[in-house]
Structure formats: C-alpha cells, structure tokens
Automatic annotation (TrEMBL), chain A:
Component of the eukaryotic translation initiation factor 3 (eIF-3) complex. This is Eukaryotic translation initiation factor 3 subunit F. It is found in: Cytoplasm. The keyword Cytoplasm applies. Coiled coil: none annotated. It comes from Vanilla planifolia. Pfam families: JAB, MitMem_reg. GO terms for molecular function: metallopeptidase activity; translation initiation factor activity; translation initiation factor binding. GO terms for cellular component: eukaryotic 43S preinitiation complex; eukaryotic 48S preinitiation complex; eukaryotic translation initiation factor 3 complex, eIF3m. SMART domains: JAB_MPN (SM00232).
From TrEMBL, chain B:
Residues 267-292 are annotated as: Disordered. It comes from Vanilla planifolia. Component of the eukaryotic translation initiation factor 3 (eIF-3) complex. The keyword Cytoplasm applies. Gene3D superfamilies: Cytidine Deaminase, domain 2. It is found in: Cytoplasm. Belongs to the eIF-3 subunit H family. GO terms for biological process: formation of cytoplasmic translation initiation complex. InterPro entries: eIF3h (IPR027524), eIF3h_C (IPR045810), JAMM/MPN+_dom (IPR000555), JAMM_MPN+_peptidase_M67A (IPR050242), MPN (IPR037518). The lineage of its organism: Eukaryota, Viridiplantae, Streptophyta, Embryophyta, Tracheophyta. One of its GO terms (cellular component) is eukaryotic 43S preinitiation complex. It comes from the Eukaryota. Residues 25-158 form the MPN domain. This is Eukaryotic translation initiation factor 3 subunit H.
Amino acid sequence: MGSSNNNLGKFLVGFGSKPRPIFAFSRPKLPFAVSSSLLPSSPETDLVMASVNKTMLLFHPSTSNVSARIHPVVLFNICDCYVRRPDQAERVIGTLLGSVSSEGVVEIKNSYAVPHNESADQVALDIDYHHTMYVSHQKVNPKEVIVGWYSTGAGVTGGSALIHDFYSREVANPVHLTVDTGFTNGDTSIKAYISFNLSLGDRQLAAQFQEIPLDLRMIEAERVGFDILKMTIADKLPNDLEAMESTMERLRSLIDDLYKYVDGVVEGRLPSDKDIGRFIADSLASLPNISPAAFDKVFNDKIQDNYALVYLSSLARTQLAIAEKLNTAAQSSFWFCLLQGEGWLQKGRKTDPQISFLNLIQLEVYILLAVVAIESLSAFNITSLRAGLALGRHELG
Amino acid sequence: MANTMGRSFLQAVATEEAAPPLRVVQMEGLAVLKIIKHCKEFSPSLVTGQLLGLDVGSVLEVTNCFPFPTREEDDENEADGANYQLEMMRCLREVNVDNNTVGWYQSTLLGSYQTVELIETFMNYQENIRRCVCIIYDPSRSNQGILALKALKLTDSFMDLYRHNNFTGEKLREKRLSWVDIFEEIPIKVSNSALISAFMTELEPESPVLQSDLDRLKLSTSPFMERNLEFLIECMDDLSAEQNKFQYYYRNLSRQQAQQQAWLQKRRTENMARKAAGEEPLPEEDPSNPIFKPIPEPSRLDCFLITNQVANYCNQINGAAGQSFSRLYLMKALHEN
C-alpha cells in the first residue's frame, strides 16, 4: 500500500504564481487560459505574463475540423477509477488511447488511470507507471496510441496546463477529456479540449484550452443494450427471444407513432413538414414491391428451410440422448452381448437392470425415426445400435 | 501489509470451511464492455484475458479484467506473457482495482469452445484459485443483436475424474457422469456503480431505435446458419470417427477373449490328459502369453466434448431459427398491411 507513494514525485513541476484566466475567446464559457511560467519544456523558466491582448488574438487557430469520439468503455473506466480513487484525492487523471483518423476525428478507445498527487501549487505524475502501462497496452493492441489524457471534475483547472504539457511531449496535440463526476451543474458534462500555446515572439505566455465537439453516441453500448448498462443491478442477461420481443414492441410503437402523425396531418391537427413526408415516403418505398404470390412463395420457402433446420437439430439432439444412454449405461453390456452371445446378455442385464423392455421399444421407435433423416448428416452408430436392440429384444421376448 | 495478509488468510480459512456453491457471477458493466471490446477488435482470431474480482460467498464478482496479448508460439514469449501479467496486476493494484484473479475470458467462434485445452486451462487455474469461472463471448453473434456472454465452470465430479485421468466406460458409469455434466453454466448478473448508472441514464439516446434493434431485425441469417450446420456436420464426422475407435476396441477385445477361451480350453484338456497320466497339472494362467495382455480402452473424453459441441450447435440453430420465424412472420404482417 505504502509503496505506491514512493513512485510519485518523479515528475514534479510547480508554478509559483497562481494560475489565472487571461481572457475569453468567442466560445463563451469554455476557453480557459492558464499561465504556465515554469513549464519544464521551455528553456525560459521565468516568464512574465504579457498583457497584449491584440497579439494573442492572432493565435486563434482554425480547428473546426477536429472532433473526438468516445468509446463507452472509456467512460466506464473513468467512472470506475473515480469510484476507486484513493482517500483524499479530489480527482483522477489518466491516459487516453486510441487513434486519429485522417479527417481529424480522434477516436478514444481505451484508457487507464495514472496515479498522481496534487497540491495547491504542484502536480506530481507517476511517469514510470504511465510508461509501463503504455507498454503493456501496446503489447495487446499496437494500434492504440496515446491520444491525450482525461481528468474528472468540471472543466479545466489550474494544474491541467502542466499535465497537458507533459502529454503534449508524448503526442502532438493531445486531447483533454473532462468528465464531471460530481454533476456540478446537475447534468452530465463530458467535454473534450485541445490546447494551444499562446506566445509572443519566442516567449510562451499561456496555454489556451478550446473545446472541440465530442461525439457521445455509443453504438457499442447500444449493441450491449442500455437495459443492463443503466441499472445498478440487472438480474439476468436478456435471451434471444426476449430481446426480439422488445425490439418488435419498439417497432410497433414506432409504427403507431407514424400512424398518429400522418392522421394528425391529414386531419389538419398537426402542421405538415415536407422533410418528414419525404422520409416516410422513402421508408415506405424501401419495402420491396413483390406480388403476393411471389411473396408467399419466398416466405414459405424460408419458413420451410427453418423448419428443416429445427427438425434436423432436434433429431441430432435426440440421437445424442440415445447414444448417451446406450454408450455410457449399456455400451459394454450390449457389445458383449452382440459378440459373446446370450450368456453375456444375462450378465449385462444384471449389471444394468434399468434397461427395461419398454425402454428398448421406445428407443427403437426413436432410432427408426432418426435413421431416416440422420443419414444426410452422418452415419452414426445406428447400425450397431439396431443390431444390439434386435438381439436384446430377442432375448427378452 | 501484514495485517491485511493475516485477514485474507483468515478469510481463506473461513471459506475453506463453509465454501457455499457458486450460484451467480456478478459482472461489472466495465468488465463486460472491456471483454466485448477486446474480443471484437480481434475477431475472428480468438483472444483471452484475465478476470479480476472478488469471491463473496456464493457470488463471484468480476469487477475488472485485462486482455492478454495474442500469443505466438515461442518459449521466450511465454516468460514475456507471465511478466506482462504480473506487471498488469501490479499496475492495476496501484489504482485500487481488485487484485484477485477469478478466472479468465475468451472469445469463441459460433460457440466452439469445448476443447481439451479449455479443460486443461481450467485445471491449471483451479490449482491456484479455489473458485474460478470462464467467461465466453461470441463476437460473431453480436452482429445479430444478441449478447452472447456465458459463464462456465467445470463440475466437481468431472474435475475429480479428470485429475485421475480415468475415462473408461466403467468409471463413468460408476460416477453416473454423462456429457451434460462436464460444464456447468452459471447465471450472469450485471451490476454497475451508481455513478455509471447516472451517466448512462443521462446519455441514453433519445432515438427510439437502437443499433441492436436494427441488428436484430436483419432478415438474412443464412450465412450464420450455414456455418453452424457446417460445424455441426464436422462434429458429426468426428463423432463417428470416435465411435469407430470404440468399435475397433470392442472387436479387438472380443477377439482377445475368444483367444483366451480357446487357450484355456486347450490347457484344460491338456491338464486332463496330464492328470490321467498322473502328472502335475499346468497352471491355468500364463501372464507371459501376449493374449492375456489387457488392451487399453480409449478415453471417452473426446467423445464427450464432441457431443457437447453438437448439443451446443443444435441449441444455436434452434435459437436462430426461432428468431428467424418471428422475423419472417413480422415481415409477412408488414407486407399484408
């Protein structure tokens, strides 16, 4: 337990003066600029803050094409890390892994937490830990590279600039993701930022964080189903047919809604909308127009195919049940009776008294049924079984 | 440190005494998503990973997991893999993730996971941890909107038998063990922290149609069915090969027994003659004679596993056919409208 603290402090940066926002850019509440006077990367260690607003405004870059997409596993991981954070820790931070597409979309696919220590004027990040974890993750999936870092809490805070600077040495233009685990504003705020260095000439003045669009649609989560991801406890996984039922229910309610809307428009209760109308027409047109006879044929063929499959699989299962009975319970006795004659059968029956005459009859009916169709699947041990049964019947009769 | 170790040892002793049967595997949503992500990204190649969590009474909690790198057949890499595992465990412990191994997960293709390797891995794990499960995920089925997640463990009676490596017909009959009794499926519960639950409730999309609905309503199932049947037929062939092995064995056995009888008969007449001549009779048993050497009975393990597989394919076909029935009738109803 105590050993974890020893690793800290390998990366120590501090800043003497308190960070303060300098000015706001066009996006009203997002931009946040932090003075970073002691950035370890910059050779000039002691910079005076400049107050020439005009010059800085020139640095407002065009970044409209950068956006981020988040995989649900990242969100889950961040929340889990937050729940498991050490005592007294205000927030957790960690590394984001993923890929950057050519269009500038940053896909955040994975993450891991990195232990850190934060006090009023310094931030310590366990760099060793970060690197070991990164190497481990690379072993599993070399395609996932560092794309940025995350932190819990609302928005960007003072220490963020320093951590961001560290990550910008790992990767160019890291993304900073903040997840408001405290629900400070009463709603979920998950935001992504990129940062720019504002400098005057050679002198670095501040880092500015600008929010970028974040795509929160989680197709992967939809695939798993919100039913089980939303509940604090879900008693069971939905099985095939239940899931199907809920889907159909949803489809039906959609069609009902559609009816209601169309009726409303026709009766003049609702305003008509050309776009919606076009959508409805499109989706109706996407139903293939086949004659009833042709449809019936296709439908019946499909149904019959399915019946055949179900039949085959049930048959195979029946066959397994029989084989199991005869194999484990009676195989030795039956084989001996086949090969050694009737004396052996007597003996075999003594050891397996549960095989009664009735059972045998029943089994044979099954087997005769099975023989017909199973031939297409595979020649089982049917012939041998039949021979055994015939002999057994002869004996009992 | 010593304190916690002492306690965990006490706990271990306590569980040793009580050890209620494992009833439920409770998975954290995070673990579910991580497994799915890993399995899906590498599909169709099969991958594995480790499950971390806690063993609480009759519930096994799986709170986290981490993937194993894809293995290459190399001795050097084996040590690498072990190192990776240790490193990962150490790192995760540092951020307060549960540090107990509770099993492993693996992906599968159409549910073909019943192999001897799986059983061997199970036995390996079982040696180190008393209670473990294997989570099996089938990425190929998720494209149909099905969450194919399964928790398996070996039954105690089977493990007992496997340890003694005794798969003769007689032994199996004695234990009343059939192929159904190899694996035991344990129901899975999914739990999430309140925080996640809040986030997901907020983030649930407004749109009434989810991706899984669209997947489920896809009409074409034939590729899935075809592959399933293909595998089924393959399994059937394997099964009949196994049967042939047994037939061969029994034929040999009976031939040997006939030979033994003949030899005995001969020896008896000989002895009769010797008795009449007043000589000492020869012994009725001759261990040096090759016809008295017992023929080894083939193991039934393979046969059992294949049977399991066949049953699994049958279930899958039935399930998929059931779905396709409902889809087809839905389509019909739509058309009639």
